[in-house]
């Protein structure tokens, strides 16, 4: 766990800007930010809310801690539901007339509609790219397209993450059909996105669940294979030196071809004819992993 947190800090959290983190607390709820702000003020100012004031203190404390630790802006989203509820109560006390309450609802709806593509993939990738390009060229807005490394791309990272999963699984299926002895074959993925795609989408192809050292997949890593593997479907970039030394036959089956996908270029290799017992190599790898 410590190693995972240090890797997260080194590769992602180091790029978090604290000012942008605070700004993210405003645009993350979208138009509902008028409710979250009103709710926070209500918890501190209104005498009737004194027994709920601790929620306001928790909110400020959590935001400050995450800001100092360079947390990502969405880490605070668990705070928004009760802030929105408090904000709704606050506006109910202020807006006595029914028509003014209706205007608030209309305001929230009108200003939420243009922001829907941020949270819901209502467009296909071409439409999403066009939407964000229009925001950039017409309104000079780049919000949502900055990835963990702070670089700007054609699509938000969460959306780009999903592109290519279907293609990747299809290529893996192609490789799996080539393998003569499927009982002595498994699919290895370098990260949890790839492993998740194979495990979920792969069901329709009847693919075995992926094996990966990434994230929660590490808890299901086999200590040893019942049948010594003679073939491995390897999903990542170019195979490392250990793979080159272990297998005498390495065939590239294909790679993700969509340039807007975050995994663009990720390849599927079919590794065959290990020069030594794969189980021996695997148990040594597992022992190093647990050190």
As a whole number of angstroms, the C-alpha radius of gyration is 25 Å
Helix content: 40-55%
> How far is the first residue's CA from the last residue's CA?
12 Å
Task: Profile the largest sheet.
Answer: 4 strands, mixed
- Mean pLDDT equals 89
* Tally of DSSP helical segments: 13
The tally of strands reads 4
Description:
The chain has 291 residues and is α+β, with helices and mostly antiparallel strands. It contains 13 helices and 4 strands. The chain has a 4-stranded mixed β-sheet. Strand 1, helix 11 and strand 2 form a beta-alpha-beta unit. The two termini are 12 Å apart. The model has no long low-confidence stretch (mean pLDDT 89).
Short description:
The protein is of the alpha+beta class and 291 residues long.
List the helices and strands and how they pair.
Elements: H1 2-11, H2 18-27, H3 33-45, H4 53-68, H5 80-94, H6 98-112, H7 116-119, H8 125-139, H9 157-162, H10 165-178, E1 185-189, H11 192-201, E2 231-236, H12 241-246, E3 247-255, E4 267-274, H13 278-289
Parallel strand pairs: 1-2
Antiparallel strand pairs: 2-4, 3-4
Helix pairs in contact: 3-4, 3-5, 10-11
